[in-house]
């Protein structure tokens, strides 16, 4: 019931043992050359070039290939050749498991079909963002996964509203927030009214009545919902080749006047319509 | 019955897990630690068979605690419980450090129990 990578799916369903998976990962690590190793093998760079590029990376936030091009060690064409060869010779985890005889080629195909079916529920629907937002595919995926988790985890009927760029986050009963770092810097927030906080608590705690629950437990359930969504966003991002780290969630009690979007950030608000009495929003504060 | 220690900074996740464990009839919860450091102390005082531990916690996180637990106690079986389970390198890192399996959030009761039974 979550975004997974193939190896994890196989261990969870008992198709391979933890030990077999680790053995296959070790084989992958031996066979799959990193960018620098592949460029070295193809004779385009020397070990000394790679060490120089690594030193340059300490002061520049660029990938090794881009640094090597910038330093005039590799041409752009050579970089593309190296990347293409890396892709063409990549040993996938399923193939590695066949090589160590964890299962047959035919069984691999069946497992891949099962995996595709399991993960189909997390394939993105199209969500439109305002023009000019960087990494728009990542944020569309984030909104889409939020909607899917509202349905799956909270079992809530809702209608997503049109995404709008905002300069102030409007007030609400509470917000739960989580920060993303890595290839992108952003804050993910879910804003809920009092009634919706209870709805979320009932779903997370599997309780029919949460009227006697302490405030910290009610707030914790909203944070946990945010944690579940953001962890799955990070997993989906890793499948898209991006690194997104998450930090533990926090709660915010916004003042009546709302919260201004900090300087240097873009504020995106996705209204989530759940009925006339309640208010829920997904908000993304994206740096740069 | 196998004794299980739950480690999670989230009160609601700890409640969810302890409910699943205690209602199973096969496992019993011996308590709830809120971070890695508490987990190490409670592993010593409660001597559980299994630890279900979150990865992403303030203070000592789950992977740091896992590194210590597998050295301090060769018998205890640690399962990580995380929303980051789908991030391939996090999953792999947990297994390499000695976790027996990883439960991804959101989880379902039967899925949790199945993983605990197979330990």
TrEMBL record, chain A:
InterPro entries: CheC-like_sf, CheX-like_dom, T2SS_E_N_sf. Pfam families: CheX. Keywords: Chemotaxis. Residues 175-273 form the Chemotaxis phosphatase CheX-like domain. This is Chemotaxis protein CheX. It comes from Pelotalea chapellei. The lineage of its organism: Bacteria, Pseudomonadati, Thermodesulfobacteriota, Desulfuromonadia, Geobacterales.
From TrEMBL, chain B:
The keyword Disulfide bond does not apply. InterPro entries: CheY-like_superfamily (IPR011006), Sig_transdc_resp-reg_receiver (IPR001789), ST_Response_Regulator (IPR052048). Pfam families: Response_reg. Residues 3-119 form the Response regulatory domain. SMART domains: REC. The keyword Phosphoprotein applies. Keywords: Phosphoprotein. The modification 4-aspartylphosphate is found at residue 54. This is Response regulator. It comes from Pelotalea chapellei.
